[in-house]
Amino acid sequence: MDLIALIEQAERTHELTKEQIIALLNNAAINETLFAAADRVRRLYVGDEVHLRGLIEFSNTCGQNCLYCGLRRDNENVVRYHLKPDEIVALAEKAKEYGYQTVVLQSGESHVYSLVEMTEVIRRIKALGLAITLSVGEKETAEYQAYKIAGADRYLLRIETTDRELYRNMDPDMSWENRRRCLADLKQLGFEVGTGCLVGLPGQTVESLAEDILFFKEIDADMIGIGPFIPNPDTPLSKEKGGDFTLSLKVMALVRLLLPDVNIPATTAMESLKENGRILALQSGANVVMPNVTEGDYRRFYALYPGKICVNDTPGHCRMCISGKIEGMGRKVAADQGFRRKSS
Ligand code: SAH
Ligand code: SF4
């Protein structure tokens, strides 16, 4: 197989078979060619602007027990917190002051907040003129609908892996089918749907990563976040090897080739694994960054994985730092809310 010709073909047609994706993932010699092609597709379809979304980690309480995650319910080494609705809205107000046009409200999956409280928070933040992305896990259809009616625009729910058996092993109390149902509900309700996967889970194969990429295309996801799995010492996977930065970048670049017009974040986990990892991601297909706007100790307490960047920084500092990096690359911070502009 001529892999360079294959990349050129994917750049033109945005199609690859599973076998072709596997061949590209398995070959290190083509990496730079792949990243450059993804960068060109990014520029052609979504332009040079980088969309910033202010991330508010409003609660680390979680009723789930995902093996990889530091917020899992069995982890007793976590100081649990949940911000009051007024505090969440206050952080969104500050995010607006820092110039963000979108906030991402993320938390563990829990019932700490009633549906009325959540929808009220959404309504109040929406009234500030901000676009709202939610990332609060699996919910019933009616709850998603209530969030949408209240004004939420987007929803992030990674499928994590399309390998059903691996999913069962990693997420003991959860069902892959229910997660898939959630993604279908969200799409049907009119959310912009964000999904994605972890790279480097124990037992994960290159074949299944290829299937993940094809799954994103099949469900026509609007945003796709790819992050390396980073072993957390407070979890059952503490001794595992963890994901590889370059492999994560390759999965991300292939996603850009196959889904040219989607929004792709340069994920925090990439930067946590490698200095300037987000910059490399922005040069290999990504067009979104989600700087943290959570304040004080909560940043540290929201520890999905160790080595999380910027835990001692302020939201104002993060905003300045990332803008500087983006401009330093010759790109610019977008002036709009950054909804997906579908090319067909
Ligand atoms: N509770 C929600 C949102 C918070 S978790 C949910 O699970 O959807 C957000 C993401 O963090 C998860 O989707 C997962 O992919 C990622 N994550 C969790 N633990 C991680 C780890 N150890 N390394 C890298 N990413 C991790
Ligand atoms: Fe909870 Fe999400 Fe972590 Fe799973 S990944 S334990 S649902 S916070």
Count every helix, treating DSSP H or I runs of 4 or more residues as helices: 14
Ligands in the structure?
A: S-adenosyl-L-homocysteine, iron/sulfur cluster
Taking Cα atoms only, what radius of gyration do you get, to the nearest Å?
Answer: 19 Å
Mind summarizing the main beta sheet? 6 strands, parallel
CATH-derived architecture: Alpha-Beta Barrel
Q: Give the percentage of residues in beta strands.
A: 5-15%
What does this structure look like?
The chain has 344 residues and is α/β, with parallel strands linked by helices. The protein has a single domain (3-331), classed as Aldolase class I (TIM Barrel). It is 43% helix and 12% strand. It has helices at 3-13, 18-26, 31-46, 85-97, 115-126, 141-150, 164-170, 176-188, 206-218, 245-258, 268-273, 277-282, 298-301, 315-328, and strands at 49-52, 54-59, 102-107, 131-135, 154-156, 192-199, 223-228, 288-289, 332-333. It has a six-stranded parallel beta sheet. The protein is globular, with a radius of gyration of 19 Å. It starts with a helix and ends in an 11-residue tail after the last strand. The mean pLDDT is 97. It binds S-adenosyl-L-homocysteine and iron/sulfur cluster. Residues 68-69, 106, 108-109, 135, 137, 157-158, 160, 198, 227, 229-230, 232, 269, 304-305 line the site of S-adenosyl-L-homocysteine (SAH).
Short description:
With 344 residues, the protein is of the alpha/beta class.
Present the secondary structure layout.
Blueprint (H helix, E strand, L loop, with lengths): L2 H11 L4 H9 L4 H16 L2 E4 L1 E6 L25 H13 L4 E6 L7 H12 L4 E5 L5 H10 L3 E3 L7 H7 L5 H13 L3 E8 L6 H13 L4 E6 L16 H14 L9 H6 L3 H6 L5 E2 L8 H4 L13 H14 L3 E2 L11
Parallel strand pairs: 1-8, 1-9, 2-3, 3-4, 4-5, 5-6, 6-7
The protein binds S-adenosyl-L-homocysteine and iron/sulfur cluster.
The site of iron/sulfur cluster has 9 residues, from loops.
